[in-house]
Design brief:
By secondary structure, this protein is of the alpha/beta class. The chain is built from 12 helices and 7 strands. It is globular.
Length: 311
């Protein structure tokens, strides 16, 4: 069985797969359908939870809880099946967090492997990137900080407090972002750095508690104990490699069974489609019992000129 974590990245319940699969707006349906066509079972959880918060460790717990539900449902006859995880971007976050928590939170769930891509490792570093006005296409990345602020304000209301930190205009944007699916939030927040909406003398990264929270929910806190295949674009306008590669190196130093590949192609969404193909082939193989292959780190330390946005 493949557990397919969609890039939900939303703050409204209507964006969750349990709804979008029923009404035909599940945006990654063609990717998930490829595993169905091969005869695999597919699990699609609402891993952002009741309050639609994301980039927290609760995501991983909800993915693992969904696997437990599948495994223990006698009508499905999947108790003895092999399990693998897949996700890109926000879906990659839910997937790798589940892999990282498996050993302590759900030792009864065995994972054949996890394939992911386009996922931030160091959330403090990606916040530093997202709050700034970036040139050209990279300015789209500004929406991620607004959406993250709106989401994390539900888990950490005392830290991500819009009334205390933001101007009235900023508060209105956060309120608007609190009822959005991914693509409409992009349209609202791109080319609009949140740093321009803080009250005088305040910034996101100097606000009390923000750095602590972002460190706590960054991916290096829990290392997966099962095979991992991780892709990331050489130039990702939303999530630069500089906020990913150090985390992968920490995983390797801790003994993780990981294969990391820098895709030579630019742009976040382009890499979602391109890297899915090898990820799909790898997951299909390991679910059939194939060896996950050797570990490696193809990170191309200096893929772009110094000073290029995102380096």
């Amino acid at each position: 069985m493949v557990s397919f974590q969609e890039a939900i990245d939303a703050t409204a319940s209507a964006c969750n797969p349990s709804h979008t699969l029923q009404v035909g707006t599940f945006k990654e349906a063609p990717l998930a359908a490829a595993w169905l066509a091969q005869g695999f079972a597919v699990n699609v959880p609402d891993f952002d939870g009741k309050y639609n918060t994301f980039n927290t460790w609760d995501e991983g717990k909800m993915v693992l809880d969904s696997l437990r539900a599948v495994k223990n449902d006698r009508a499905l006859s999947l108790k003895d099946s092999r399990f693998a995880l897949y996700g890109y971007s926000g879906g990659g976050s839910g997937s790798i967090r589940a892999a990282g928590l498996r050993e302590t939170y759900a030792p009864d769930i065995e994972l054949a492997g996890t394939a992911l891509g386009g996922t931030p490792g160091d959330l403090l570093a990606v916040a530093e990137y997202g709050v700034k006005q970036q040139p050209g296409v990279t300015g789209i990345a500004n929406f991620t900080t607004w959406l993250a602020f709106a989401s994390l304000s539900r888990n950490y209301p005392d830290v991500f407090d819009a009334k205390r930190l933001l101007t009235r205009a900023g508060q209105k944007i956060v309120a608007d972002m609190s009822r959005r699916c991914l693509y409409t939030s992009v349209a609202t927040g791109m080319y609009r750095p949140i740093s321009e909406y803080f009250r005088p003398g305040l910034t996101l990264l100097t606000a009390p508690g923000v750095k602590r929270v972002l460190r706590e929910i960054s991916l290096d806190r829990h290392v997966p104990d099962s095979p991992v295949l991780w892709f990331h674009g050489v130039w990702d306008e939303l999530i630069p490699p500089s906020v990913v590669v150090p985390t992968v190196r920490e995983y390797r130093a801790a003994g993780a069974n990981i294969r990391f590949i820098t895709s030579p192609l630019p742009e976040h969404v382009v890499n979602a489609g391109v890297t899915w193909a090898p990820a799909q082939a790898w997951i299909s193989a390991i679910l059939r019992g194939a060896d996950p292959g050797p570990t490696f780190m193809l990170d191309y330390p200096a893929p772009l000129p110094q000073g290029f946005p995102g380096t």
